[in-house]
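Page 37, top half.
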Amino acid sequence: MSTEVGSRVVWVARHADRLDFADPTWAAGATHPHDPPLSQLGQRQAEALTARLSTETITHLFASPFLRCVESALAIARTCGLHVKIEAGLSEWLNADWFPDPPELEPVARLAARYTHVDTSYTSRGQLHFGESGGEALERSAATCRRLTEEFDGNLLLVGHCASVLGSLAGLIGRPAVEGVIADPPYCSLSKVIRPAGCNWRLIYTGDVSHLPAISGA
């Protein structure tokens, strides 16, 4: 699928299916129970997303530090010849109802030791804020997305969570996500925002899962 000539593109994807939802017993024996990897279905979904994006021009790839987002981005990185920049500003909404304590996540150096396509030279522009409100989580990801588009040229792909996808999109198009302008994105869905030369960012579509039907029920 080609992009309009002269336009800049930001793709925003939600991570694929997570292991703890597929296997509720997984967390009991996990070292980092609040940081699940992808399920087998999620891995197939990530491969399908990679196939969808393989013909697109992507200059920089950013992912939340949560493992499900990193793993969702890795196949794209390998296929497109990119490295995954770990960006804390795209993290999950860190509310106390979901996390009794700040979640323990794998350090970037350890992720890079396990996955060769993780960029160890990148410094996250955003920060984790444990105990944040929903509005604060949306604004945190919105501010991060705006900063990334200002600092990095070319077309960007961001891989995050429901809240950080909503915040990133709202941050670019200038509409609060809480107004319902943007629906909650399904797992491994893809959203597209473009900025034609001399114009503002424009939402093309959000929550697209047309690349998933063949495997979504597997």
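Page 37, bottom half:
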Amino acid sequence: MIRRLADCNNVSDLRALAKRRLPGPIFHYIDGAADDEVTYRRNTEAFDDCDLVPNILAGVDDIDMSVTVMGQTLAMPVFCSPTALQRLFHHDGERAVARAAEKFGTMFGVSSLSTVSLAEIGAMTATPKMFQFYFHKDRGLNGSMVARAKAAKFDILALTVDTITGGNRERDLRTGFTSPPRLTLQSLLSFAAHPVWAFNYLSGPKFELAELKDYLREGSNDAISIGEYFTTMLDQTMDWRDAEALRADWGGPFCLKGVMSVGDAKKAVDIGATAIMVSNHGGRQLDGSRAPFDQIAEIADAVGDRIEIILDGGIRRGTHILKALAAGAKACSGGRLYLYALAAAGQPGVEKALGNLREEIERDMRLMGVRSLSQLNRDMLRCHARVRGK
């Protein structure tokens, strides 16, 4: 049984420690997904359908795992994807992740549903930062968030495009998870069983959605599920014209998060997007949809010379990252891989997660016979019949 951070050698170990330290509804919010969670599982299992073919006698004494993504140089080819509600998982929340990402020279993505302000995060770190944008019905709120991200000197704006309505997150329905947590007999018992978490949550600053609290009560004062928030607060009329207008308003590197088809990837090129994140929202939205890794080669073949492609979701190992890059991705990102770590131990936990991945990437590059990520290519992959027979 995992009891200490020092014993966490991989994402699964960090997940086990997070499960020990979080109340049930909070843990299952991180860990859960939509419907039968088929897509959630497939996001990681997809990597098993392709094998790596290493080279030998390549002279790999010097390893360079840096990559340039959307104009930002990262010291490793994986970054912290934007995720919501982080102060529910650890009282330091986004502050802990920002500091850990800076220590490892990688990018931190901050959600519209963040629990620490963009201004504070912008002031505390100098490494690349992405602001993940939810397109709300309140157009005044939308404009204000863009302005605040610019003022905080965020480098990239990423519009999430797969939340036109909330997914059916049945674990959250069973546990009664809301933001902020709704106090029921079941939740109170779970909080009481985790006194350290309860003390930090109850004794710290009031939980709130830092960028939304002055515009909306939902999520900060009025308890609401995330699925219900998406369905009621986000603009279901959002279309390609809105995305193009947002890109123009932002005026800097612009990314669409949630692109899964070749047709949509081509439209992203047409509106002038800098990058796309091939993502299914961690399996939290449309269950039964394709895994990002299953789509990377197809999308890269269609638009890889015109737009940067980021694989988002399912990453658990350094080999997963190398497979994604060999298939055509420029970099990778993930949420659960560091949220488990945040819940397990705050900033030291996130540093442990990123450190484990960095060690794996370096070791696996040596074993693959490559000195730089640019040497990875499709010839180093052999995919099983399930993938070839699309």
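Margin note: The mean pLDDT is 95.
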